[in-house]
Each structure stands twice: as structure tokens, then as C-alpha cells.
Design brief:
9-stranded mixed β-sheet, Glutamine Phosphoribosylpyrophosphate, subunit 1, domain 1, alpha+beta, 33% helix
Length: 597
């Protein structure tokens, strides 16, 4: 259960072993992960509690035995399916989806941002951390001015991690070449892609700021106007295609060195904080996943610098301790227990998580024990049935920067059972609102994700924490769920509710994802709703002392997969209008005959 130290692209991965299955590595052990230093402390085998039945996917899912992909954007999903149907594995398909999203879903898909990925294979689960890091020379005064001015612009840009992370995943676990899996994205950028309805809305929502940048106008405005392109418009991005081709040819060096790197640095201006060394020294890292149990199911999630995985572990562990699954569904008690557990977990998420590379082994182990034991928080702040506990009583209150919710999540499973859960982000929608013009790379504003209090302080070279939390769930050591979501601080609560809808309430995958969600993130001390509660239920919660946000809004976008034996069920969350597809079986090659015959 320990979090292992990371490695660079040339090092050995750290992953906790699982019993063998039919999934094969890239080439007879060529890139198999080394045993984890903490494998001797792996959690013991358990079985789901009696009465837990994980049902199939439901009427609205897609199901198949040859692999499935679900993402927020249809052309990216098709790119992944095409790779599966060409013989690629789940990592090949996931890397293809991620590169395609950098073209077709530019508000969150990216080359200039970062993310997290979980890869499940026969020999274990590996967590790949490609979260962005602060420039080495980041001064606190520049950070404070950037936050005060809105959290965007050149000083908000962290060193991008996505190209390094995808290259590491492909090198370590892929079956095809990097050039083969990037090819669909290059084609979309060079020949053109169709702007989807959700992507057109994202442009419209950010357009007042984006149109101030000539590079955004040149790429995303209707010809001859200063208005954003409409859904259905076909766009080409030749400069981005050239950048993708550079990565396809040279790997990570095609982004972090040479012309692309120079373009990124030039876009930040003369007084930039980022240096060439910041780019060339960046490495994606493999880490030991964070593991815990929920009602006999093993939940494997992203460790720090994911604070979302920590919040997920604490929330579900506290709910199990409180036996929340015995509360009548949609009752005041059920809502109360979820909200109170979330408050405590999100206080820890905000104040107690930091880049693990700055912690010593002993301190890291102590934090892991705290995060995987519900008693650690419940003993300090017990949940009182029938009475809400104010956030300021759980932790000293402060006003933090708002965490942006503009992220995207996708899930992939292949025919052999290899699975990928991946979440990527630019932090805010369109990140820092900057494009590296010569390369077409939209840049993140992840430096604004550092906090002004707690452990996640702005420090040069440090990775900032994130609420992204790709997650896998195992029953009797077999993978059953591939979960994740965008949504800033709503991510852990979204995953919690989808998982519990399936496990505690017996819902099918589509019903579990479609069900209305609630959220409490510790700050503000309010319950956020997607749909109105029944008046008697709301009054009962208000009598307990709960407060409600004044407006309702969408929460998350959980593109998820459920496995039932050899069949994978995939569902695209309707909240952002994505697409789930199942791969068709590969056709066997036609027999050849000799001229003599």
C-alpha cells in the first residue's frame, strides 16, 4: 500500500503484482514493470460482501468482446477503436485517443497540459503521472500576482506533461509503434475534423477572452469574422499536425527539444519563467497506485500528486465504516452521510496532499496509512447522524483559488482484458488562453492550481496536486469497473456515486452514470445539486443544518466501462455528449495460393 518512487522514461515501472491473466506485454517482457518495493505489503485477498451483485451494462451501453472505448468526443473514440481493430492493445488505443483529443477537444484535450493514467495488465496496475510541474525559477511574488489577475497568462503556464506521459505509456506497454498510434490525430489535424456541439459550446463560453489572442482568432473564428466557429464546421490545424508528426518521429524529444520547444518558450514572452532546461528535464513518472477496500472490492486509484484519489479513498472508507449502504436510497440519512464523509475527505484533499517527491519515505508511508484508514479522520471529527458539522469545525477555513472543472476522462479495454483509465487537463478551459503559435500547442494554466495554504504551495520544480482520479475496481482479483471523470473537486464525489450506484444499489452501468449527482467539496460549505430534491427531503436536510448552493449545475462526465466476464460494457456520459463504441473482430488474413495451384 506504499506509494513507490517515480522513474523517468528510461527507468523501471513500479506496480503492484496481480495474479496472471491472458494479457501480454509489448514484447515478451521487454517493458514489463519491475516488482514494487512495497509488493510485500500489498492488501490481502478479499471477496465482495454477500449480496453484492454487479449487473451488466444496461440497455443504452455498447458491449463487445473485442475491446471498447468511451470518451467525450466521437472522432477521438473512433481513433481508438480503429487502433484496436488494427491489432493494437488498450494502451495503443488510449494513446491514440489522447492525441486525437488534443485536436478535436481543444478545451481540455492537449499536448500542452498534463494528466494521470492507470494501466491494468496481468502483472499489475501501473500509475503513470504526467502532471505538469512548476518552472524551476517560480517566485512566490509572481505567483501571487498571477492569481490576483485571474490565474491565466504566461506566469500560469507549467511545464507540459502530456507528451512525455503518452510516450512513456506507449514505450512501456504499447504493441504498435508511436507513429502508428499518432497517425489518426495527425490525419484529423491535417485533413480536418468536424467541430462537435460540446466543443463549439466550450469555444463560445471562453470566446470573450480567446478572441483577444490573434492565434485563437486565426484557428477558431469563422472566416471573415471575430465570432467562434459553429458546430459542424470542418477545421484544419496544419501547425498542430506538424507538431504531432515531430512527436511521432522523435518521441518525447519531438516536443521537449527543437522547434516545438522553442515555440512553447517564445509564446511566453521575454520575461518568461520557463527555461529550455525546464522542458528537457521534465519526465513522466510511474508510481505505486493507491489501494483500498470498499465492501470487499479492491479499489485502485491514482496516488499523489492526485489529491482526488486520496479524497476518493477517504470518502468510500468512511462510508463503509458508517454502513452508509444500509441507509434507504435517496433518504436524508443517505445524503447526509455522503456529504459529511465528503467534507472530511475534501479537507484532507485541500490541505494534506503534496507532490510525493518532496516527502521522505517515512512521511509518505504515514500519510498513506492515514488516507487508507477511515478512523484517522472519523476519530478527529466524528460524523453525527442527524446533524451537519460546519466545515470550519473540521479544518481552519480559508478562501482558496477556485479549481477549474475543464478536464476530460476516457476509458479503454481491449479483447485480452488490458484496461486504461486516463484523465487529462489544461486546468482551466483552454488553459492559460495562450497558443504557441508556430506549433499550435494550447498551453495549460496549471501553476494556478497551487494553493495559498496547506501543503500544495507554489514551489519551483514541484508538481502541483490535482483532483483527477482515474480508478479501477476489482472483485475477486478480476477487473470489473474502469472509472473516472472530469470536474475539478467534483471528481472524487462523481466516482464515489457511480461506484456506489453499481455496488450498493445494483444499478446497471448506464443507470449508475445517468443518475443525478450531488457534491460537497468542503469549501464552500454548501451542497451542490444537479436536480432539485423532493421538498420534504430538502427540508429534512436543512433541519440537520445543511445548506444548498443557489444554482444547479452539471457535475462530472463519467465515461466508464463495466466488465462482465469476457464482455466489456462501455457508456458515454450524456452530460457532455460523448461516444462509446465496441471494436469489431479482426478479420483473419485471406489465404494465399501459389501459382502452381
Amino acid at each position: 500500500m506504499l506509494l513507490g518512487a517515480g522513474c523517468d522514461a528510461a527507468g523501471g515501472a513500479t506496480s503492484a503484482p496481480r495474479p496472471p491473466s491472458s494479457v501480454a506485454p509489448k514484447a515478451a517482457g521487454a517493458h514489463a514493470p519491475a516488482p514494487s518495493a512495497s509488493s510485500s505489503l500489498a492488501t490481502p485477498t478479499r471477496s465482495p460482501e454477500p449480496g453484492i451483485v454487479i449487473r451488466g451494462g444496461g440497455r443504452n451501453v455498447v458491449a463487445g468482446r473485442h475491446g471498447v472505448v468511451t470518451s467525450v468526443e466521437s472522432q477521438a473514440t473512433r481513433a481508438g477503436i480503429g487502433i484496436l481493430e488494427r491489432g493494437g492493445n488498450a494502451v495503443d488505443a488510449a494513446v491514440a485517443v489522447a492525441f486525437a483529443l488534443a485536436v478535436t477537444h481543444p478545451s481540455a484535450g492537449n499536448l500542452g497540459g498534463g494528466g494521470f493514467m492507470l494501466v491494468s495488465r496481468d502483472d499489475g496496475v501501473t500509475a503513470i503521472d504526467f502532471r505538469e510541474s512548476a518552472p524551476a525559477k517560480l517566485p512566490r511574488a509572481r505567483f501571487d500576482r498571477m492569481i490576483a489577475s485571474g490565474g491565466a497568462g504566461p506566469d500560469s503556464v507549467a511545464v507540459p506533461g502530456t507528451p512525455a506521459g503518452l510516450c512513456l505509456a506507449q514505450e512501456r506497454f504499447g504493441r504498435l509503434t508511436l507513429a502508428e498510434v499518432i497517425e489518426p490525430a495527425i490525419d484529423l489535424a491535417r485533413r480536418g475534423y468536424v467541430v462537435g456541439a460540446r466543443q463549439a459550446l466550450a469555444l463560445e463560453w471562453s470566446w470573450l477572452i480567446l478572441r483577444q489572442n490573434p492565434a485563437f482568432l486565426a484557428r477558431f473564428a469563422r472566416p471573415g469574422t471575430r465570432d467562434p466557429v459553429a458546430a459542424g464546421t470542418r477545421l484544419t490545424q496544419p501547425k498542430l499536425a506538424k507538431t504531432l508528426a515531430s512527436i511521432a518521429e522523435r518521441g518525447r524529444a519531438g516536443f521537449y527539444e527543437g522547434a516545438v520547444a522553442a515555440s512553447v518558450l517564445d509564446s511566453l514572452g521575454r520575461g518568461r519563467l520557463m527555461t529550455p532546461d525546464d522542458l528537457t528535464s521534465y519526465r513522466a513518472k510511474t508510481r505505486e497506485p493507491l489501494r483500498f477496500w470498499y465492501r470487499g472490492l479492491e479499489v485502485v486509484t491514482m496516488p499523489p500528486p492526485s489529491a482526488g484519489g486520496v479524497a476518493l479513498a477517504l470518502t468510500l472508507s468512511m462510508l463503509e465504516t458508517e454502513r452508509a449502504h444500509t441507509a434507504p436510497p435517496d433518504s436524508a440519512l443517505a445524503v447526509h452521510l455522503l456529504v459529511e464523509a465528503a467534507k472530511r475527505a475534501h479537507a484532507e484533499r485541500r490541505f494534506g496532499v503534496v507532490d510525493p517527491d518532496v516527502l521522505g519515505p517515512g512521511e509518505l508511508e504515514a500519510r498513506v496509512r492515514r488516507w487508507t484508514s477511515p478512523n484517522s479522520l472519523l476519530s478527529e471529527h466524528p460524523i453525527v447522524r442527524g446533524q451537519a458539522v460546519r466545515s470550519e469545525r473540521i479544518h481552519p477555513l480559508f478562501t482558496p483559488p477556485r479549481e477549474d472543472e475543464n478536464t476530460t476522462h476516457f476509458s479503454v479495454v481491449d479483447a485480452a482484458g488490458m484496461a486504461v483509465s486516463c484523465t487529462v487537463t489544461l486546468s482551466a478551459s483552454f488553459g492559460a488562453k495562450l497558443i504557441a503559435d508556430d506549433s499550435g500547442v494550447i498551453l495549460n494554466n496549471a501553476v494556478a492550481s497551487f494553493s495559498i495554504a496547506g501543503d500544495n504551495l507554489p514551489t519551483g520544480g514541484r508538481r502541483t496536486v490535482s483532483s483527477m482520479a482515474p480508478t479501477l475496481v476489482f472483485a475477486d482479483q478480476k477487473l470489473v469497473l474502469v472509472l473516472g471523470s472530469p470536474g475539478g473537486d467534483t471528481i472524487p464525489n462523481t466516482i464515489t456515486q457511480v461506484l456506489r450506484n453499481i455496488v450498493d444499489r445494483g444499478m446497471t452501468l448506464d443507470a449508475a452514470v445517468d443518475a443525478p449527482r450531488i457534491h460537497h467539496g468542503f469549501i464552500p460549505d454548501q451542497i451542490r445539486l444537479e436536480r432539485p430534491l423532493a421538498p420534504p427531503l430538502r427540508r429534512e436536510l436543512e433541519q440537520m443544518g445543511h445548506r444548498f448552493a443557489p444554482h444547479r449545475s452539471r457535475i462530472g462526465d463519467a465515461n466508464s466501462i463495466l466488465l462482465d466476464g469476457a464482455t466489456a460494457h462501455a457508456y458515454a456520459d450524456r452530460r457532455e455528449g460523448g461516444l462509446a463504441l465496441a471494436a469489431k473482430p479482426r478479420k483473419p488474413p485471406k489465404p494465399t495460393t501459389s501459382p502452381a495451384e
